Structures are given as structure tokens and as C-alpha cells.
Amino acid sequence: MSVGKISVVPVRTxxxxxxxxxxxxxxxxxxxxxxxxxxxxxxDSFTSSRNAAYEFCExxxxxxxxxxxxxxxxxxxxxxxxxxxxxxxxVRFGWIDFIDDIKVSEALLDAVAEWGKERxxxxxxxPFGFTDFDPEGMLTEGFDRIGTMATIYNYPxxxxxxxxxxxxxxxxxxxxxxxxxxxxxxKAQRLSRIVMERYNLHLAVYxxxxxxxxxxxxxxxxxxxxxxxxxxxxxxxxxxxxxDLFVRRYLYMLDRxxxxxxxxxxxxxxxxxxxxxxxxxxxxxxxxxxxxxxxWRILNAxxxxxxxxVEMLFVAVKPxxxxxxxxxxxxxxxxxxxxSIGCAFxxxxxxxxxxxxxxxxxxxxxxxxxxxRRAVFYKTIA
Length: 382
What we know:
Helices cover 34% and strands 26% of the residues. The chain contains 12 helices and 14 strands.
């Protein structure tokens, strides 16, 4: 129940942006399953000079106040490129968090809706970020498991509020817990060899310099993701400026043994799979801060043999190579590389439950299971 007047105010100042960024950390402090946002990353997301998505997006973060205390937050986002591709006029809501008070969640969504209507939008939908590299989808099942670096954790009352406020699911995702066999089954290795020979494919070989490899492969990799993910619900293609930012910001975090890239006879990228050791517990201990010790915890978590769990960041296959057994190659090589660093388990990032091509990948891993479900919700606001 509300005990005071609720006001929702647009974030304008650096101090307000810090309050916006810190609220998630404070709301979930002590929760054993939540992986908090990095406060600096959240602030960068709403700083146009540090987020290349502002090339084609506009956004406004809000905080909800009750008796001077922050009790909720939300960001209103319009991705004009995605709206054009999908022929919609949608204002997205993202970075949404709130106390268990329906008046707070209602006030936050009303603020997003009004902001969107002022700009000609007629549909409210979320949680979405600027692009698919931002956390998206509200958790609807799996509240008793620790989250991953790239996903949203929320309390069970969140989707209950969405339903009470008249929002309906527009898309649903699943996340898998994967058990990796060790050693790789001979059948998987044999099928991988057959597919590689049939289509004259080979694996990328990395040199010593990450900078050189970034120039050689990273940009092609992200362009492949744009091509492979284009048909998926709500996807917004990465711009060249965004790709450049991702390469500079995240390349150093990747262990090259966990980056599998499949090339054709012309050395063009036709498939890729990226994984990394889980840093979820390191982020929990860091409580949203890189300094003074958060950076050390994260780097330590990225070391080989630091964890038995990896996060499956993404898998992408060029459209003309889909349904040709390419997943067998990725299964073979990813499993082998994960075994080599002493890991036995993995967790996938969210996958559309209707994406049966991706779902079929986990059939290669006996004992794997869906452990979380999430959804985005929409409402007409015209």
C-alpha cells in the first residue's frame, strides 16, 4: 500500500541519473539470486556520447519518488530503426524496477506512455533496451536461481503487476541449463567432420594479438549476427558505430578458446558461438561497482578453472547455412573448448520459445533443461 504521494520525475541531472542507476542495486541488496547492474554501465547507457544506439534511438529515464525516497525507476525508449523495420509505433519501457506497490508501477508505465504519445507512439512494450545487447524480457519463472550477467532478475510480483495493469505478453523466451559431456561423444565429432568436409568449412585460427583478431573477425561476426537475427521478434540491427563500441569495450573479456568461428572456403564467417566463464557471483559481490575491488573480482572470475559454469552469450548461423548441420560443428567445438577450461555446465541467454532452430541445439546435450522463462508485455496507448 502507498503511504505517501507518488511523483514520477524525468532524470535530468547527473545526481538523478546516479539515483536511477543505484536503485536496482539497493532494491535487490541481499537477494541471493539477483545479479546487479554495474552502476557505471547503466549511467553510460543513458549518456548519448557513450551509447552509439542514440544514432537511431531517443530515450528518457524516470524515477518514482515517495516522500523523497526513490521507489521505482523506468526508461522510455523509442528505437526508430526497429519501429521502421517492424512497421510499428512502439515506445519501449526498460530498466524497470519498483517496490511492491501497484500505484508505483502504474505511475511509471503511465509516464512512459505519455512520453511516447507525445512523440506519436501508440503502443507500449517491454522490458526492452535500446537493442538486443541490452537486457530484455521480464522473468516469469525461475525466481529461485541466480541470474546471468546479461539478463534481468526481478521479483515474482513484477509480472503480476503487468497483468493487473492490463498488459499482455507479446513474446516469450526460455533459458537453458546445459550439461556438457566430457569427453565429446564420438558421434558428435564424426558428424562435425562430415559437415565441415561437405561444405568445405574450417575453423578460424587465432594469432597472439587480440587487436589484429578484432580487425579480422569481430566486425564480420557482428554483421553475421545482424543477418542471422534479423527475422527474430523486435530485433534491431547493430550499426557500424555500435559494433566498433562493442569490440573496443568487450573484446578484452573474451577467452579466445571460447570463441568458435566457422569459415567458408573464402574465409567468410558462416557461424559463430561465444561463451565465457560466469561472472554472476563476482558481480553480486561487487554490488554494482567496479572500484575499488569489483574489477579484480570480475577479472578473477574470467580466469580458466575459476568456475564450473559458463554463460552461452550467443550462437549465430548464416541463413543459407541453417538446417545444414552447422550446429553439429558448434556443438563439437564449443563442448571441447569448455571441457578444456574445466567447466561442466552452461546457461544460455534468453531464446525465443518459437525459435525452434535454436532450441534444437540443446538436443545435443542430454540432461539439459529449461530453467527460466521470461516475457515482454505490451499495451495499446493510443
